[in-house]
Amino acid sequence: MKALLRGRVKVDKNWAALYRAALDFFRTFPGLISILLIKILLFLLYISNTMSKNRTVFLVDDDTDDQDFFKSALQTIDNSAFLLSAFNGEHALELINGGNVDPDIVFLDLNMPRMNGAELLVELRRMESFDLIPIILYSTSSERSAIIECMQLGANDYLVKPNKFETLIVEIRTVMDKYLK
């Protein structure tokens, strides 16, 4: 509820308009009924956001086969999730700076041309809008030094890309349950 009050929860435009109207009503007619109305709206908004599963997942990976593999696993886990993809770090920044990306969680491949996952991670962590968004490195590299470096740069987690589809489903589900509940 505190995140909602601080504006850190993504809200539907209709709910936002209703909330603004309730605040205007409260300012015009301060009193117990207005306070009660705002509390009810906040509660409904909070419930709506916690129950809504329409998650936006942002995947940055240069390998289209890996993107398709990830998309299939995500659809198996949650077919209401929206997957947005970029093919490298520069492309991801273009989408973000263009206002086309508002993810709930980000998965970054580590080894990409032009701007790799670690470089993009640094750029994302510099952006205030990505302060609270989980960023997961998702790579074929299982080198301990790479994992430690990414965690020190601000990654929330690190997944080694599995070869089996069932394993990928379990890993994505585990990460999403951990960071999006």
Automatic annotation (TrEMBL):
PANTHER family cross-referenced by the UniProt entry: RESPONSE REGULATOR RCP1-RELATED
Keywords from the named record: Membrane, Phosphoprotein, Transmembrane, Transmembrane helix
InterPro entries in the cross-refs: CheY-like_superfamily (IPR011006), Sig_transdc_resp-reg_receiver (IPR001789), TCS_response_regulator (IPR052893)
Residues found modified as 4-aspartylphosphate: 109
Protein name, per record: Response regulator receiver domain-containing protein
Organism per entry: Chitinophaga rupis
Residues of the Response regulatory domain: 56-176
Keyword hit for Phosphoprotein: yes
